[in-house]
Specification:
By secondary structure, the chain is α/β, with parallel strands linked by helices. It has helices at about 15-25, 50-60, 100-115, 155-160, 225-235, 280-300, 305-315, 315-335, 340-345, 350-360, 365-390; strands spanning about 5-10, 30-35, 50, 70-80, 85-95, 115-120, 125-130, 135, 140-150, 170-180, 190-195, 200-205, 210-220, 245-250, 260, 265. Helices cover about 35% and strands about 25% of the residues. The strands form two sheets. Strands 1, 2, 6, 7, 8, 9, 15 and 16 form an eight-stranded mixed beta sheet that branches. Strands 3-5-4-11-12-13-10-14 form an eight-stranded mixed beta sheet. Residues about 395-404 have low confidence and may be disordered.
Length: about 400
C-alpha cells in the first residue's frame, strides 16, 4: 500500500557514510530514514583497509572499537615498484583489515539501533529535490527536510544536483579479487605496489579467510586494466580463476561544493577519497557524521536550506587535505617521476615515516606538503648528482626500478 511519510533527514545509501550520517542525525534528535537498494549484509568491492585515522572516526561516531572479531591488526608494510622492493616497515603504527560485507552490516545495524528507520531493499524510483520528496520502489513517498546523498560514486543525488555523478576525466577505476587460496598468517605484510597501474597502485591485503588483491588508477590512463590485474596476479604468483570485481573510484575528483541548500553529499558521492592512498572509509565516516549533524541542526532551527552552509564549513579540513594531496600526487604517480620517487622513498626515513604517520592519523596532508616543499628540491639535487656520478654500465636507476 502506498503511503507518505514526513522525515527530518533522509539518507540515501547505507554504507559507512550513510550509516554515520544517520547515526549522527539521530544523536541530534532528528527523525531519520536510511534507504539502500540492497539488503544487508551485502557484498561490497573494497580492499578493506582501516587506517588509524579511520579507526578513530569509527570510535567517535559509532562507539566501535577495533576488536579481533571484525578487524585484523597489521603493523608490517611492504612497498614495491615495478617488482623491486622499496621498503619493508615493521612495528609501525597499526592499520587494520576488515571485510566490507561484515563492517557495513555492523554499522547499519548500529544506526538502526539508534532509531533510524530502515528502508533498505528498496530503490529510489523518483527524486524531486525542489519539492523535497522521493518515491521508493514499494510505493512509499518520503518527504524530507534535508536529503543526504551517501549513495556512492554513481550517486543519483549528485547527478540530480550537478547533471553527472562524477567527472569522467578524473575518475579512477579498480579491479579486485578475493583469493581464498592464500590464507595469511598473523605476520603477513600489507603490500602496496606503486605503478602496478598508471597513476595508481596494486595492493595485497592479507586477511583471515582470503587475501584481497587488486589494482586501481585513473581510468583514462588505464584502458587495459584487466591486463594490469593479470600481470599483477602473475607477479604475485596467485591464481587467475577468482571472480574479478570492478568499480569506479573518485580518485582525486572531489567536489569542492558537495551539495546545495538542503541537499548534501557525503563519502564517495562527494569524491572524498584520498587521491594517493585510495582510502575512503575514513573520509566516508567523517563526512557522513558531519552531514548528519549539519542536517539535523538545520532542521531543528527551522532552516533546512541552511544545511549546506553548515556542512561546507565543517568539511573544509577534508577538502583542504584532499587539495594538498592532489599537489603531491604527480610526484608519486607521474611516470617520468618514477625513478626519482622510488630512489627517494627507498632512501628517506622521513618520507616513509610521514607516509605511515599519515595513515595513522598522526599528521595531515597540509603539514606533509609544507615539508615537501622544503625537502623535494634537496632530494632532487641528490638524485641528479647520483645519476651524474653513476658509473657507465650501471642500470638506469641504480636499482631494479625501471623508468618511464
Amino acid at each position: 500500500m502506498d503511503q507518505s511519510i514526513d522525515i527530518d533527514v533522509v539518507v540515501i545509501g547505507a554504507g559507512p557514510a550513510g550509516s554515520a550520517a544517520a547515526m549522527s542525525a539521530r544523536a541530534q534528535g532528528a527523525s531519520v530514514a536510511i534507504i539502500d537498494k540492497a539488503r544487508f549484509p551485502r557484498s561490497k568491492l573494497c580492499g578493506g583497509l582501516i587506517t588509524g585515522r579511520c579507526a578513530q572516526h569509527l570510535h567517535d561516531v559509532f562507539g566501535l572499537d577495533v576488536d579481533c572479531d571484525l578487524f585484523e591488526a597489521r603493523d608490517d608494510f611492504a612497498f614495491f615498484m615495478d617488482g623491486a622492493k622499496l621498503a619493508r616497515l615493521r612495528d609501525v603504527p597499526r592499520a587494520y583489515l576488515t571485510m566490507r560485507f561484515d563492517l557495513d552490516a555492523v554499522l547499519f545495524d548500529l544506526a538502526l539501533g539508534h532509531g533510524a528507520q530502515d528502508f533498505s531493499g528498496r530503490r529510489v524510483e523518483d527524486l524531486d529535490l525542489d519539492r523535497r520528496r522521493l518515491r521508493l520502489s514499494d510505493g512509499t513517498t518520503l518527504r524530507f527536510g534535508v536529503l543526504i546523498g551517501a549513495d556512492g560514486v554513481r550517486s543519483r543525488v549528485a547527478e540530480a544536483l550537478f547533471g553527472q555523478s562524477f567527472d569522467p576525466t578524473k575518475i579512477g577505476f579498480a579491479l579486485e579479487i578475493e583469493d581464498k587460496t592464500q590464507l595469511a598468517g598473523p605476520q603477513a605484510a600489507i603490500r602496496v605496489d606503486f605503478a602496478a597501474a598508471a597513476w595508481g597502485y596494486g595492493w595485497s591485503f592479507p586477511k583471515k579467510a582470503s587475501t584481497t588483491i587488486g589494482v586501481g588508477g585513473l581510468q583514462v590512463e588505464n584502458p587495459a586494466m584487466k591486463a594490469r590485474l593479470a600481470a599483477y596476479l602473475d607477479m604475485l604468483g596467485t591464481g587467475q580463476d577468482a571472480k574479478i570485481k570492478g568499480h569506479f573510484l573518485p580518485f582525486g575528483g572531489y567536489r569542492n561544493r558537495p551539495g546545495r541548500g538542503a541537499v548534501l553529499l557525503a563519502g564517495d558521492a562527494a569524491g572524498f577519497v584520498d587521491p594517493i592512498t585510495g582510502e575512503g572509509i575514513g573520509y566516508a565516516v567523517q563526512s557522513g557524521a558531519m552531514a548528519g549533524v549539519a542536517a539535523a541542526q538545520a532542521v531543528a532551527t527551522g532552516t533546512p536550506d541552511g544545511a549546506f552552509a553548515r556542512y561546507l564549513s565543517a568539511t573544509r579540513p577534508i577538502r583542504n587535505a584532499l587539495r594538498c594531496a592532489r599537489l603531491l600526487r604527480p610526484v608519486i604517480f607521474a611516470r617520468p617521476m618514477a625513478p626519482f620517487f622510488a630512489s627517494t622513498f627507498r632512501a628517506s626515513k622521513t618520507l616513509k615515516r610521514d607516509y605511515m604517520r599519515l595513515l595513522a592519523g598522526q599528521t595531515e596532508y597540509p603539514q606533509i606538503v609544507a615539508r615537501a616543499f622544503l625537502r623535494v628540491p634537496r632530494a632532487a639535487i641528490r638524485f641528479l648528482w647520483r645519476k651524474i656520478r653513476r658509473p657507465k654500465g650501471a642500470d638506469r636507476h641504480g636499482s631494479q626500478i625501471s623508468g618511464g
